[in-house]
UniProtKB/TrEMBL annotation, chains A, B:
Enzyme class at the top of the EC tree: oxidoreductase
Domain (Aldehyde dehydrogenase): residue spans on this chain: 15-276
Protein name: Gamma-glutamyl phosphate reductase
Compartmental location: Cytoplasm
Record function comment: Catalyzes the NADPH-dependent reduction of L-glutamate 5-phosphate into L-glutamate 5-semialdehyde and phosphate. The product spontaneously undergoes cyclization to form 1-pyrroline-5-carboxylate.
A GO MF label: glutamate-5-semialdehyde dehydrogenase activity
Catalyzed reactions per annotation: L-glutamate 5-semialdehyde + phosphate + NADP(+) = L-glutamyl 5-phosphate + NADPH + H(+)
Pfam families the UniProt entry points to: Aldedh
Organism: Sphingobium soli
Originating gene: proA
Length: 421, 421
């Protein structure tokens, strides 16, 4: 199908032109047909689990021979359960309400023109990911559900697994009468193909990187296509002087320690000097297995606290480590966050409503929280049903992004022969 | 204030850092304060009309000496009326309802978390424009009204006029208690400063070019910052077989000839072979002073029709010239538009509702119209009160863009101590 002797730019241009044509078709497909395609794709993934596991075994063998880390091997590995989970995820996306065709607003002008803004598909989405082969299924499902064509480019370590999952998805999609070009997988693991995809503004409307920080950084650096992503999640939980100590301890320990490796975990705790239970909070974190790095005052609270360096305030640990700084009330906390935040998720813990509103208003992050754990920063927890990613960018979509963020709108003007004077 | 011996990159970094700080301040300013600043700015522009006209006279002298075209000299020239118009425009923006703080949606999750998406300012906007000094006032007003800081970079031919208008605007803004850095004018006309601004993704959230096609093309080519713009307006009016002839003639002549130089003017007319009054329509356009370039069938309708070349279907004339092609019904018209449109504004003229809906659904342009003149493609006509530009891009904002397009949103989560299980 694709001639692998061609240049990466030629390959991407060929795939991009196919995707543009397929996007026109899927934009016109009915909602029922798109949902049907995803249900059939899910079933095909289930049916082909043995072939997918066999393909994955070849990837695992190669990965082990190439000395991949245990963590990467774990992300790569597919077992029956994970494949069933991927299929169930595709079915969940099929069951989501479609944003397409919904009317954002409508007005009738004094001259009788009726104007409405209606949601339509975005067009062609590029997904660049690594290691976890399940992304092949779930990212494709979200893009397709929102009426888009998608070009997938997975990691070389997962190439056999990705091909097997892609083949199964395609079987369902084609059986539902949609063109196979709706979901294309870049057939080469040549890294230059990623570069070509990132520059293909003519063919791709949005790039979503799914993977570690180095992948996201490379994509943001090289892309000439708009990118939806977050680079860092240096999230803050601010414990105000008017916080309830039991709630503060429960929230901070959950925000930091529930899962330390996710982007919504708290990395820095700011404590109001007026908060009297700071030592107990520090001990609770240490007791939960967390390394605490603190300023001088925090170091004085417990001998196990290590000194925080200036770099700690700008570090996303993604680990059982937290930095803690004492601040002089909500304004000082806001000033620290303005200086150090990555604009992902920041929370205030307080019983003082006025201070809470001041914080929610002044902190300019994609997600701001009052008396809640930052670990809730997730599309599923936000009721979106799924998530293509979390955006810390300011344009188009911000915070957890699912189907709506994969659409745009058009203006529909209905007249009765009006001419402009 | 700015040392002109520094490099363009240093200058833009200095201005960008100031703009970022000013953006934090203006994001927190009350709606009343922002409106007050604009009303004071408008009054200052009126009061300083003599100084502005004197500055403009210096620009006009230079421009004449540099041999600028009559059209450019006309765009550059400021007289009492145009200055009064600029001031009135700023007052109109002050009177617009602010989108800030409006709640896009709100939900309460089963765990009791209350989530809402609330409109907030975008941040820092860069405006790159040429010739028309009034943009200094109207673009600044729109950005400020939506709570943003703005960096203006006007054309070298208008530098004295822009400085005088900027100084007047600042007087009002500072008198209202806002920092002067909310509206900065790049003090050098060195073209390298434009390049630096286009790459300043750290300091600028959105660039809006205002000017001719060559300016927009350069901005789109060089920018590493998101750009809101349209490059072309190759707009189509499709006359269906079921169109009312009187309405069709009135709409097409208006769509093409009302003002030929605006981006919403029709450039290509597609006529259904089943439409019986095509020759009369062709004669009406010629009678209105329009040059008609047609396919073979259209050439056969009137001896004055010139042959259309292949390039005509991809040409934005912005002049009293139209290309006309006969097509086989609405599907053929859609196929032509898919192949040639610039995704700006396309219209169908028909009394057949089903065909109209098919066209409105299938044509993927920022604006699609039924029985209306494409010349209505304008923020003022769309009830937005003003317009920072029209976007043919697909992300963030599409079609006419005013205050809402200069905002983003954040997620506000209000809890009562919820932790994530």
């Amino acid at each position: 199908m694709n001639d692998l002797t061609q240049t990466p730019e030629m390959l991407i241009a060929t795939m991009g032109a196919r995707a543009r044509r397929a996007a026109v078709t899927i934009a016109q497909a009915s909602d029922a047909q798109k949902a049907d395609a995803l249900r059939r794709a899910a079933q095909a993934v289930r049916d082909q689990a043995p072939a997918i596991i066999a393909a994955n075994a070849r990837d695992m063998d190669n990965a082990a021979a190439n000395g991949l880390s245990a963590a990467m091997l774990d992300r790569l590995k597919l077992v029956e359960d994970r494949i069933a989970g991927a299929a169930a995820g595709v079915e969940q996306v099929a069951a989501l309400p479609s944003p397409l065709g919904s009317v954002i607003d409508r007005q009738v002008r004094p001259n009788g023109l009726e104007l409405s803004r209606v949601r339509v598909p975005l067009g062609v989405i590029g997904i660049i990911y690594e290691s976890r082969p399940n992304v092949t299924a779930d990212a494709a499902a979200l893009c397709l559900r929102a009426g888009n064509a998608v070009i997938l480019r997975g990691g070389s370590e997962a190439k056999e697994s990705n091909r097997a999952i892609h083949a199964a998805m395609l079987e369902g999609i084609v059986a539902a009468g949609l063109p196979a070009e709706v979901v294309q997988l870049v057939p080469t693991t040549d890294r230059a193909a990623v570069g070509a995809l990132l520059k293909a503004a003519e063919f791709v409307d949005l790039i979503v990187p799914r993977g570690g920080k180095s992948l996201v950084a490379r994509v943001q650096e090289e892309a000439r296509v708009p990118v939806l992503a977050h680079l860092d999640g240096i999230n803050h939980s601010y414990v105000d002087g008017a916080a309830d100590p039991a709630m503060a301890e429960k929230l901070v320990v959950n925000a930091k320690m529930r899962r330390t490796g996710i982007c919504g975990s708290t990395e820095t705790v700011l404590i109001d000097r007026a908060y009297r239970e700071a030592p107990a909070l520090v001990r609770a974190l240490i007791g939960a297995g967390c390394e605490v790095r603190g300023d001088d005052a925090v170091q004085g609270m417990d001998a196990r606290v290590k000194p925080a360096q200036e770099a700690d305030w700008d570090t996303e640990y993604l680990d059982a480590i937290v930095s803690i700084r004492m601040v002089d009330g909500v304004e000082d906390a806001i000033a620290h966050i303005v200086a150090h935040a990555s604009h992902h998720t920041d929370a205030i813990i307080t019983d003082d409503g006025a201070r809470a509103e001041r914080f929610l208003n002044a902190v300019d992050s994609a997600i701001v929280m009052w008396n809640a754990s930052t670990q809730f920063a997730d599309g599923g927890e936000f009721g979106l049903g799924a998530e293509i990613g979390i955006s810390t960018g300011r344009l188009h979509a911000r915070g957890p992004v699912a189907l709506e963020g994969l659409t745009t709108y058009k203006w529909i003007v209905r007249g009765t022969g009006q001419v402009r004077p």
